[in-house]
Design brief:
The complex is a heterodimer of chains A (220) and B (479). Helices cover 79% and strands 0% of the residues of chain A. By secondary structure, chain A is mostly helical. By secondary structure, chain B is an all-alpha fold. Helix content of chain B is 78%, strand content 0%. Chain B is built from 19 helices and no strands. The two termini of chain B are 32 Å apart.
Chain lengths: 220, 479
């Protein structure tokens, strides 16, 4: 029984890393959004499984937030924003899919080496979870770095944040997890509202962050 | 009585924020803002005379008491400056009354978040408080809604969020390290408990956690190479916010870093956090010192100067030991007072001249003598000339470095000198020569600026014995 518990948790956390990888090479915004919704869905399953294993009912709240807010509300509203901004047909130039994937593999290897070594004494479930969480976090960072589009940078940030939620639920009995996931949801809601309200497209004529670099305040 | 002081520090700002969000009329709200900030400052002062026992959520000790008093004091003076600054912004139509209501409410929310981060006895609550502080400043930086302001806010948002995410990962790792020793649940996130039993934690886990925390909170301190948000955020937001960012928010992030440093120092097997902080401090100092030369925007210039000084402060705390810690604390206090005074001057100057570009200013000592000379005193102070307070603290940093690691003193002195040259080169163009541009009288309140500068001057000439003893005590606490 114990090994089954472990295997399922392992599979879900590993699935999260896998979905992170597939997000790296999505060059259409719709596809990226759908993949992100899947990411959040896998996270919700993983958190719910942790809640069941640890017998910690409050984690179900975190799972529900992940499911409702991140897998449904955010993708739908971003979908609308993309249509409203008229960038749904845009194909993003992803900096070399091959090198990015290789770099991502390197990051995952790095996080395995670091986390498995330092958590040698923790229980195996938490160890694996922390290692996977760090991988998801680093892959999210990688995505934010390789994208030039404000919307996909936000998606990168949200996937990074999913890694954090995974880490927080993996650390058994950690207090304030629910509060922290609520705080993060507020942060993300702000970002999304920010994109919409500031009408980045209207202001800058493009959501390509590269174009924002013109306004450095130092040009002459 | 004691418990009341701590809750007053938190409740006054948050209650005022709610009130300010609904009240119309800028005259009333600006005054209310000042009054609330003043009451919070009084509550903070009362902590000197008695403090509550640390609970699972809040605590007051010698270290954060200094930070709280400094934060509430600068918060109060900035609110006075803000009242006159905002009046002008309203007149020229850069802000509308609706945005102003939002601005005042956010100002108090920011004060609340910073105070909460300082009094928190819980690493989770501290993290949440710093996140709230980041969010409110992002909103305020973008308040003018120009191209530049939006870009600055966006950059700050993304970089700040990444920093905050890394800090949370570090926080979770600390909890992981504490859990086997302290047990599950809230206790494993309480500072006082963590520090008391840190010696038994797994050192490897603590090391990794500290790297994440240094990167995460270091982003908020503005350490190079994670500083990219800082100059934009300072230049494009309203000037009172620049003053609060430089003078206070950077300190709050630094405070978080110092707390974790104490935690690591309590575990003999963990890596020494000092060298990492020394390296990041020196890089920030030298990088920012060179960046000062090519600045054309006055607020960006002083933002880089903040990076430079945060570099010096982090360097001093990285050196550790009673003398360097004392110097670091003193420097932090002096920098907060001086930099906010400079931003008070710069805010009014930019309003008089209608621009922030340095080359469009000139001859301020002739056209607006009070502002011009105020800026000169501020820059003389920030550059570290005697007899002002920063000379004292920089001298202490350098001499304590010479005594222990003479080689490290060379890049330190080099960086300070480079920055010195840059500041005076630019200052010369701003305050002397033929007056440029509009020379209208400034409708300014000079009291906050000169109050800060007077404090810095007094500290440079004579430090009360009680204050020295207090700082020495804190320096010992920092290890």
């Amino acid at each position: 029984m114990h090994s089954l518990v472990f295997d399922i948790a392992h599979m879900l956390a590993g699935g999260l890393v896998l979905v992170s990888f597939t997000m790296l090479y999505q060059d259409r915004l719709y596809a990226l959004l759908n993949t992100f919704a899947l990411h959040a869905f896998v996270l919700a399953l993983s958190v719910a499984w942790q809640a069941y294993v640890q017998n910690a009912p409050h984690l179900y709240v975190t799972a529900m937030i992940a499911l409702v807010f991140k897998a449904i509300v955010i993708p739908i509203s971003l979908h609308r924003i993309i249509v409203r901004l008229g960038i749904h047909r845009e194909i993003e130039v992803v900096v070399g899919v091959g090198p990015t994937m290789l770099f991502g593999i390197g990051l995952v290897a790095l996080s395995m080496v670091v986390m498995l070594r330092v958590t040698a004494e923790a229980d195996p479930l938490a160890r694996e979870d922390m290692a996977f969480a760090l991988s998801v976090l680093l892959l999210g960072l990688l995505m934010m770095v390789t994208r030039r589009n404000a919307v996909s940078q936000v998606i990168g940030f949200m996937s990074l944040e999913n890694g954090l939620v995974l880490a927080a639920t993996g650390a058994k009995g950690m207090p304030l997890v629910v509060e922290i996931s609520v705080a993060f949801s507020i942060l993300i809601a702000f970002i999304v509202i920010g994109i919409f309200l500031f009408r980045i497209r209207e202001r800058f004529d493009t959501v390509d962050v590269g174009a924002l670099d013109r306004f450095r305040g130092e040009q002459r | 009585m004691n418990v009341d002081a701590v809750s007053a520090i938190l409740l006054i700002p948050i209650a005022t924020a709610t009130l300010l969000a609904v009240l119309p009329g800028y005259r009333l709200t600006a005054r209310l803002n000042v009054l609330a900030a003043f009451l919070t400052f009084l509550a903070a002062l009362s902590l000197f005379f008695g403090r509550p026992e640390p609970g699972p959520y809040l605590q007051i000790d010698d270290l954060n008491n200094v930070f709280i008093v400094l934060t509430t004091f600068v918060g109060f003076t900035t609110s006075v400056f803000s009242a006159s600054y905002i009046e002008h912004e309203l007149e020229i139509g850069r802000l509308t009354p609706r945005f102003l209501r939002f601005y005042h409410a956010m100002y108090q929310v920011l004060m609340f978040a910073m105070n909460l981060a300082l009094v928190a006895n819980n690493i989770g609550i501290m993290w949440v408080a710093i996140e709230i502080a980041t969010l409110t400043t992002v909103l305020m930086v973008g308040i003018y809604r120009t191209h530049e302001a939006l870009e600055a806010a966006w950059k700050y948002f993304i970089l700040g969020s990444v920093g905050i995410a890394l800090a949370l990962f570090g926080t979770i790792l600390i909890y992981m390290a504490a859990r086997p020793v302290i047990g599950e649940g809230l206790d494993a996130m309480v500072w006082t408990g963590l520090v008391a039993r840190a010696a038994k934690f797994d050192p490897a886990l603590l090391n990794v956690a500290f790297v994440f925390l240094l990167l995460g909170y270091g982003t908020k301190v503005g350490l190079a190479p994670l500083h990219a948000w800082l100059p934009d955020a300072h230049a494009e937001g309203p000037t009172p916010i620049s003053a609060v960012l430089s003078g206070l928010l950077l300190n709050v992030a630094l405070y978080a870093l110092l707390r974790f440093k104490i935690l690591l120092a309590a575990n003999p097997a963990a890596l020494a956090p000092g060298p990492l902080m020394i390296i990041m401090g020196l890089i920030s100092l030298i990088f920012a010192a060179f960046m000062l030369y090519r600045r054309r925007d006055i607020k960006r210039m002083f933002a880089y100067s903040s990076i430079e000084h945060m570099g010096i402060i982090v360097f001093a705390f990285g050196m550790g030991g009673p003398l360097a810690n004392f110097a670091g604390l003193l420097h932090m206090t002096m920098h907060s007072l001086t930099k906010s005074a400079i931003f008070f001057a710069v805010g009014h100057i930019a309003q008089v001249k209608g621009t922030q570009t340095i080359s469009d200013m000139g001859g301020l000592t002739e056209s607006n003598p009070v502002l011009g000379w105020g800026l000169i005193i501020g820059v003389v102070a920030i550059a570290g000339l005697p007899p002002l307070g920063i000379f004292m603290s920089e001298f202490l940093v350098i001499s304590s470095t010479f005594a222990r690691e003479p080689w490290l003193a060379i890049p330190l002195v080099f960086g300070i000198l480079v920055a010195f040259g840059a500041l005076f080169l630019r200052l010369n163009g701003i305050v002397f020569g033929e007056p440029h541009g509009p020379t209208a009288e400034a409708k300014a309140s000079y009291v906050p600026m000169f109050a800060h500068l007077a404090l810095v001057l007094i500290a440079g000439i004579y430090m009360p014995q009680a204050l020295i003893a207090w700082f020495q005590n804190v320096a010992r606490l920092l290890g």
